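User: Design a sequence. Structure:
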């Protein structure tokens, strides 16, 4: 239900947005610069959609999440929303939801700066690392790659981090590792923050700092990417595509360094691959029908890495699927789509009856595999699929929850969508904040994003070559079974993300 229509001034909207953004980020309103990009405050997809849906309730009309890209700071967004509010009050119409993005030719985007070339053709590979440069150290996977590098090598890790000063950068990295239970004080001297910004030239690092890193690091692990399910390609290009180009620029300066790039199985989201087996070394020339801006940027960025490989750069490419929690501790990113979806459906009491396969891989498997494979000379030039080798139907999870007396009913997807629109009206249910993602229609067939991920529309990701490369390493992907579900559930309940009373367990 929308509130009664009335005009709101830019000042009123600005105060409201400041208050709610501060609450979402757990900071004080006066800590927010109204002219600074919202992205600089770490506004991820879930938080962005939550802000949008709460704003809709206050204003009384639909707000497109795309506005967060077109008007990326509080000042500009408040002014735009005030204009829409005034239009609605005077004419009864608003144009907020009709923003269109230009048709993209992703193949034309895949152009690597011609000056980015390895400084020499000779390269002596060594699995021993003294210094590495890592992006994504404040992310979920990045935390576990750091842990694995610290445990398996003697390297110092120079971590790109967006911060005002060194101490803040160090605290961000420490806090991220702590929240995933992988911080150990003894490792502190080996984690060195590098102040910068993935979306800026030279990664936002000074010329001297960029060159110093280029001259001294032995390898680069590029794990960072801006993940936002509602932003278009144009909003994510600077960080995900141009950021990858800058990483490759560093790799070619002064001495040749291997780049271990964390890509995604999303590069195969074109319907051309639906139902087909795709192997690690298969080409991915088809991009038509990839609709998520994030997936589009991953397709282009990996193309840049492939161009660099053809120019003589030593690279390895790692393609994980959705990454789930740690198989032993259960620790996970509670803001990820799957966790929010499951929590929302439990609160709703209904799950959509759809043919989804659970092919997520636990984060410990993914991080261990990446670090191990990156240290093998025979991995250079190859791609790896970190997809779960034995995916299971999504209904297995529902059956498991039902076995504990959680009252859940399967209904058709159309019925479920109708319930989402008509019955889910509180921001307390994560599905409410996910509605822009779940209900937005894409493509000529007017499919929603969940439609696009049905089993029949997805490729079959082969990971046999990757399993062969891991043979003898003792790195094995844990099965998706009741033990894993129990581990994850225990963490979600213990962390307070899931509450016992929400589960409605029947005795």
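Assistant: Done.
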């Amino acid at each position: 239900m929308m509130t009664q229509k009335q005009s709101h001034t830019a000042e009123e909207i600005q105060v409201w947005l400041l208050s709610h953004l501060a609450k979402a980020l757990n900071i004080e309103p006066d800590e927010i610069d109204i002219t600074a990009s919202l992205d600089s405050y770490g506004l991820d997809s879930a938080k962005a959609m939550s802000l949008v849906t709460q704003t809709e309730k206050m204003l009384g009309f639909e707000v497109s999440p795309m506005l967060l890209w077109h008007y990326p700071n509080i000042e500009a967004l408040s002014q735009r929303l005030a204009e829409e509010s005034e239009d609605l009050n005077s004419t009864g119409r608003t144009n907020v939801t009709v923003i269109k993005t230009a048709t993209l030719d992703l193949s034309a985007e895949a152009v690597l700066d011609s000056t980015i070339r390895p400084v020499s053709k000779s390269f002596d590979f060594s699995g021993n690392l003294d210094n590495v440069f890592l992006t994504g150290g404040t992310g979920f996977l990045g935390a576990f790659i750091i842990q694995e590098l610290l445990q398996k090598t003697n390297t110092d890790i120079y971590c790109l981090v967006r911060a005002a000063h060194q101490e803040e950068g160090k605290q961000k990295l420490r806090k991220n590792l702590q929240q995933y239970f992988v911080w150990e004080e003894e490792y502190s001297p080996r984690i060195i923050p590098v102040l910068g910004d993935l979306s800026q030239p030279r990664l936002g690092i000074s010329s001297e700092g960029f060159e110093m890193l280029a001259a001294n690091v032995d390898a680069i692990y590029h794990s960072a990417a801006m993940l936002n399910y509602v932003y278009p390609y144009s909003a994510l290009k600077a960080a995900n595509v141009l950021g990858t180009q800058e990483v490759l620029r560093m790799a070619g300066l002064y001495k040749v360094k291997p780049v271990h790039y964390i890509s995604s199985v999303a590069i195969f989201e074109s319907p051309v691959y639906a139902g087909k087996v795709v192997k690690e070394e298969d080409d991915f020339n088809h991009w038509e029908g990839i609709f998520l801006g994030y997936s589009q940027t991953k397709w282009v960025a990996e193309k840049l890495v492939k161009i660099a490989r053809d120019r003589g750069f030593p690279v390895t490419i790692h393609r994980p699927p959705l990454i789930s929690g740690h198989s032993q501790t259960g620790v996970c990113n509670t803001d990820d789509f799957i966790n929010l979806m499951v929590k929302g459906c439990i609160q709703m009491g209904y799950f959509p009856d759809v043919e989804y396969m659970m092919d997520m891989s636990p984060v410990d498997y993914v991080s261990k595999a990446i670090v191990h494979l990156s240290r093998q000379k025979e991995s250079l030039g190859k791609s790896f699929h970190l997809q779960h080798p034995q995916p299971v139907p999504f209904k297995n999870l529902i059956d498991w929850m039902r076995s504990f007396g959680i009252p859940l009913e399967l209904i058709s997807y159309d019925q479920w969508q109708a319930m989402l629109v008509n019955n889910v009206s509180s921001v307390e249910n994560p599905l409410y904040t996910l509605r822009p993602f779940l209900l937005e229609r894409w493509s000529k067939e007017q499919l929603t994003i969940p439609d696009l991920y049905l089993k029949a529309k997805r490729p079959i990701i082969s990971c046999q070559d990757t399993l062969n490369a891991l043979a003898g390493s003792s790195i094995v992907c844990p099965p998706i079974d009741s033990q894993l579900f129990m581990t994850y559930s225990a963490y979600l309940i213990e962390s307070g993300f899931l509450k016992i009373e929400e589960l409605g367990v029947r005795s």
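The domain at 10-98 is CATH 1.10.1200.10 (Non-ribosomal Peptide Synthetase Peptidyl Carrier Protein; Chain A). Residues 94-102 have pLDDT under 50 and may be disordered.
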